[in-house]
Every structure is written in structure tokens, then in C-alpha cells.
């Protein structure tokens, strides 16, 4: 299943009273808890220096802004009464400072990117279109655009991501949590840590949705609403808004259809405090499918203006269910019942040909390539007959017996109803070598429809399109592959050739620099 993502929001207990209207440091803390960053910064400037909460409020604001040395310096004397109420802050500042030590910082438009020296340096150039596009989309939908550059940190090591996020390591590993939006920043584990990468561009767009929904709702939107919104809107940077027209990937649809049939849907309340706390990656995937359909239903019923009113009403009274009922003209919890009836009526299918090909976190795996397409996927590894036919096909292909290899691959494909994307790639490579590139491309297009995140298929499609003279399709597929695994040199080589041929010198130079870094392991 796809990567798991979540929003982890602060829940602080703070007071709001202050004497004679005088700004107080404690009120700044309350504003930060509500993610009202600009208001908090403006109020802090008016807080008297003798206010006992000012040091802690200053440290918290600087921590939200990503200034860890400044936050550490601003902390009050250890053991003060005020710090007891935010006892988590000092260790979190220390962990963030340690995890990001030596990071490079680069400002591009409305974002401040931080990353370790090395392969993660290439991520920025490819992140810009996703984040700037998502910023524009969310500004239109919710009318919110942060005044200061938003900090996004790419972590090259899993222990650093765990330390900076504060998430339990077992949560990260059980549900493949690779990114969070927390403390008004985005923390992202490098795609280098999965063999085929993961949809990291959609992931950072997903996290940006969390940030904006959090700010627009005053941090009152519950986990299910946050995650559903982020899931539905994560592709809006590239597809544009599609209210009421969200499509699940085939495996998620199959899981949802099965859960509907078995009456085993996960209740919204079980998703608290975060999706990462669910018992497995499949459970998290089902939860994401459910909440995405709930938000898709809302958008289909009331459109973007209605969705915005829901968020604004949630900010006013802190109850998203009440807000939904008000906007949709329902009463007494009618939304959840109506959504369930709508969900039951949707033609979700149990896909007999699609399996889970979930990955595990593996340090440095994204930099390993398989140019000959010899690796197996979980579908092949789980079925002995498919595996045996495939291994024989591989042996024949390497010895140049292409027609015989194709026969064995076809036997493997017919041995099971489940589609294997790795097997499809082997078939396509053989067809390509036999001069049947059109058949190979048709086969791969069907495969990527079933497994849109199987990076080798996307990359091979780019290669076949370029060889077939379709530069436009090749460029689209190469960018799609980079949005999954930017550390495979293959798509960059294709882009460099496309740009050189069309005299796009600046873009060609960028790709050649990336190729040099990745092939020479210059990190």
C-alpha cells in the first residue's frame, strides 16, 4: 500500500485570562496551540519583559519557526513553574537541534528547505512545483497562505526522523509513516529509505494540506477530517481540484469493498490520536480510504465553498460533526449516517487481480537500481508456480532465447489471477527486444493503472516512449517516476536526453548534475 502519512497536533492546556487586557506570554502559547502564528508573533512583541511566561512563549514560537538554537537560548531556567506545563518542549527542541545538525538550508519562493548534504540535496528542485502548486490550491480553497516561509525538513536517516518527530519508532516502522506536519513544519523521511521510493511529491503536498487545514480550523479539526482532506487534496497541485470526483487506487478500493461487505470498517474514533497508531499498514490504508471517501462525499454535496464553511465553523465552536451538519442542513449527527448510506451505494469492487505490494523501510534501498529487471515482487514471491515460470523465463531471456522466455512469462501470468507488475515489466522488456514496443507499452499502461506506485514500470514506460519517438509522453512518465523515486538515475537520463534534443540547456544541465551525483555516489 502507499506510504502512510499523519497530522500530529499539539494539545496543550493553557489559560486565556490576562489582567486589564495586557498581552501575556501565556496567551501567546494559546495562540500557537491554535496555529495562529501571525497573531502569536504580533502579540509576543507586546508582552512585557517581566512577564513570567515570555521566555517560554518565545522559545515555543521560535521552535514553531524552526529556529532551534534561538528556541534553546530563550528557554527559562530549568524547573520553573511555567515550564512544567510544557515539559515536552525542552527535549523536543534538543532532539530537533540534534537531528538537523549540519543540515543545508535553501530558500525557494514560499518555502525554506532543509536537508543533509548528500543525495537529499536533489529533492528541492523537484519539490518546488508540488509545494507552490499546493499552496495556490489551498489558498483558493480555504483562503489561507502562511506569511512566513514554511519550513520543510528532509531527513536522510531514519533515527533522525524519529528523533525530530517524536513518533515512536514502532509506529513509523509498522505503518510506514514517512512524513508528518507538526509544529507548523513539515518533516519528511527521504525516499531513499524504500526500494522503489514512495510518492514523495504527493506526500509533501499532503502534509501541506494538514498545515493549512490546521490553521484554518484553529487546530480544531479531528484526525479523520484532517487525513481525509489531505488524502483527497494531495494531488490537486498536479491534477487541479476535483470536488466529488476522488478515485481510490485499486488496492485501496478492494480493501474498502471487502470491509463494507464484512462490516469491518474502522470507526473514526479508532483513528485517534493518529493513523500511525493503527495496528498495521493495511489497517491504516483502510482508514485512509474511509476518510477520503467521507471528504469526497462532503465536497460532492456542498462543493469547495461548503467545505470552507465547514472548516470555518469548526474553528468557531470546535465540533466538526456539528459544522458538517449545519452546512449540509442535517441534524443530530445526520452526516455520518448519510455518508454510510452513500458509501454503501458506491460500486466499489473487490479486485481479484490486485495484491498488496507494501514495502518495508530499508536504509539506502532507494539508491539501488535493477536495470535488467531481474527482481521479483511480493506477488511472485508468494506464488511458487509463478515464481518458477518467471525464473525460467529470466534464464532464457539472459541467454537470448526471447520467444521461449516470453512463453514462460505468459505461463507465469496465467498461473494466478493476481497481476504481478514485476512480471509485466519482464514481459515488456522481452517484447521490446523482439521489436514489439507498442505491445510492450500497452501492457505496461495496464500494469501502472493497477499499481500506480510501482516505480520500475513508470520508468520503463518513459524509456519505451522516448525510444518510440514520443518525447512528450517520455517526459511525463520520467517526471512521474522522479515523483516516486528521485534517486534512480534512469528517469534523469531520459530527461537529460529530451532536454538536450529540444535545446533546453538549463534543464539538461540540471539533470546531468543529478546523474553525476547519483552515478558517482558523490555523497
Task: State the main characteristics.
mainly alpha, Serine Threonine Protein Phosphatase 5, Tetratricopeptide repeat, 6-stranded mixed sheet, globular, 523 residues, 6 strands, 25 helices, disordered N terminus
Task: Please describe what this structure looks like.
This protein is mostly helical and 523 residues long. Among the domains are: 19-98; 369-451, Alpha Horseshoe (Serine Threonine Protein Phosphatase 5, Tetratricopeptide repeat); 455-523, Serine Threonine Protein Phosphatase 5, Tetratricopeptide repeat (Alpha Horseshoe), CATH 1.25.40. The chain has helices at 25-33, 37-44, 54-64, 68-74, 81-84, 89-99, 123-142, 158-165, 169-175, 200-216, 223-233, 236-239, 250-262, 281-317, 320-328, 334-345, 378-382, 384-398, 402-414, 421-433, 437-450, 455-467, 471-482, 489-501, 505-519; strands spanning 4-7, 104-108, 111-115, 150-155, 177-182, 185-189. The chain has a six-stranded mixed sheet with strand order 1-5-6-4-3-2. The two termini are 30 Å apart. 50% of the residues are buried. Mean pLDDT is 92; it is low at 1-20.
Oligomer status = single chain
> Largest sheet, described in full?
6 strands, mixed
CATH class of one domain: Mainly Alpha
The largest beta-sheet arranges its strands as: 1-5-6-4-3-2
Distance between the termini: 30 Å
SS element count, helices: 25
CATH topology (fold) name of one domain = Serine Threonine Protein Phosphatase 5, Tetratricopeptide repeat
* Helix/strand/pairing category: mainly alpha
Shape: globular
Secondary structure tally: strands = 6
Q: What percentage of amino acids are in beta strands?
A: 5-15%
Tell me the helix content: 55-70%
- CATH architecture descriptor name of one domain: Alpha Horseshoe
Radius of gyration: 25 Å
On the 0-100 scale, what is the average pLDDT? 92
Amino acid at each position: 500500500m502507499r506510504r502512510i502519512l499523519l497530522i500530529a497536533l499539539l494539545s496543550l492546556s493553557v489559560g486565556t485570562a490576562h489582567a486589564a487586557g495586557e498581552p501575556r506570554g501565556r496567551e501567546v502559547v494559546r495562540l500557537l496551540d491554535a496555529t495562529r502564528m501571525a497573531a502569536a508573533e504580533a502579540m509576543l512583541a507586546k508582552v512585557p519583559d517581566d512577564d513570567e511566561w515570555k521566555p517560554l512563549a518565545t522559545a515555543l514560537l521560535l521552535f514553531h519557526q524552526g529556529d532551534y538554537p534561538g528556541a534553546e537560548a530563550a528557554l527559562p531556567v530549568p524547573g520553573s513553574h511555567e515550564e512544567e506545563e510544557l515539559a515536552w518542549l525542552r527535549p523536543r527542541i534538543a532532539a530537533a537541534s540534534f537531528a538537523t545538525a549540519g543540515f543545508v538550508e535553501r530558500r525557494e519562493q514560499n518555502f525554506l528547505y532543509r536537508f543533509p548534504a548528500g543525495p537529499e540535496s536533489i529533492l528541492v528542485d523537484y519539490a518546488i512545483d508540488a509545494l507552490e502548486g499546493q499552496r495556490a490550491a489551498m489558498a483558493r480553497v480555504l483562503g489561507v497562505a502562511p506569511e512566513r516561509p514554511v519550513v520543510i525538513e528532509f531527513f536522510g536517516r531514519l533515527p533522525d526522523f524519529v528523533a525530530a518527530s517524536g513518533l515512536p519508532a514502532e509506529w513509523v516502522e509498522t505503518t510506514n509513516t514517512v512524513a508528518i506536519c507538526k509544529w507548523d513544519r513539515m518533516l519528511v523521511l527521504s525516499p531513499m529509505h524504500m526500494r522503489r521510493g514512495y510518492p514523495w511529491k504527493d506526500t509533501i503536498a499532503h502534509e501541506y494540506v494538514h498545515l493549512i487545514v490546521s490553521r484554518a480550523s484553529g487546530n480544531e479539526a479531528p484526525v479523520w477530517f484532517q487525513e481525509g482532506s489531505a488524502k483527497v487534496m494531495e494531488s490537486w497541485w498536479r491534477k487541479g481540484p476535483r470536488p466529488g470526483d476522488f478515485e481510490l487506487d485499486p488496492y485501496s478500493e478492494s480493501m474498502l469493498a471487502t470491509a463494507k461487505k464484512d462490516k469491518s470498517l474502522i470507526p473514526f474514533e479508532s483513528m485517534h490520536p493518529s493513523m500511525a497508531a493503527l495496528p498495521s499498514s493495511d489497517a491504516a490504508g483502510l482508514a485512509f480510504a474511509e476518510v477520503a471517501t467521507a471528504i469526497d462525499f462532503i465536497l460532492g454535496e456542498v462543493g469547495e465553498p461548503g467545505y470552507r464553511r465547514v472548516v470555518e465553523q469548526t474553528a468557531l465552536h470546535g465540533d466538526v460533526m456539528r459544522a458538517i451538519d449545519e452546512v449540509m442542513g442535517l441534524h443530530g449527527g445526520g452526516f455520518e449516517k448519510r455518508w454510510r448510506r452513500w458509501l454503501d451505494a458506491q460500486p466499489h469492487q473487490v479486485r481479484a487481480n490486485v495484491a498488496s505490494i507494501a514495502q518495508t523501510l530499508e536504509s539506502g534501498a532507494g539508491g539501488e537500481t535493477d536495470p535488467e529487471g531481474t527482481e521479483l515482487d511480493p506477488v511472485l514471491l508468494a506464488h511458487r508456480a509463478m515464481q518458477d515460470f518467471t525464473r525460467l523465463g529470466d534464464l532464457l531471456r539472459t541467454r537470448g532465447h526471447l520467444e521461449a522466455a516470453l512463453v514462460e512469462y505468459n505461463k507465469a501470468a496465467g498461473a494466478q489471477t493476481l497481476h504481478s507488475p514485476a512480471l509485466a515489466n519482464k514481459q515488456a522488456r522481452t517484447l521490446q527486444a523482439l521489436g514489439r514496443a507498442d505491445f510492450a507499452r500497452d501492457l505496461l499502461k495496464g500494469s501502472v493503472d493497477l499499481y500506480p506506485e510501482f516505480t520500475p514500470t513508470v520508468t520503463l514506460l518513459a524509456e519505451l516512449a522516448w525510444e518510440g519517438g514520443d518525447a512528450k509522453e517520455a517526459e511525463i512518465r520520467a517526471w512521474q517516476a522522479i515523483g516516486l523515486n528521485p534517486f534512480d538515475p534512469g528517469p534523469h537520463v531520459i530527461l537529460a536526453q529530451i532536454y538536450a534534443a529540444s535545446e533546453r540547456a538549463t534543464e539538461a544541465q540540471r539533470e546531468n548534475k543529478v546523474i553525476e551525483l547519483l552515478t558517482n555516489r558523490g555523497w
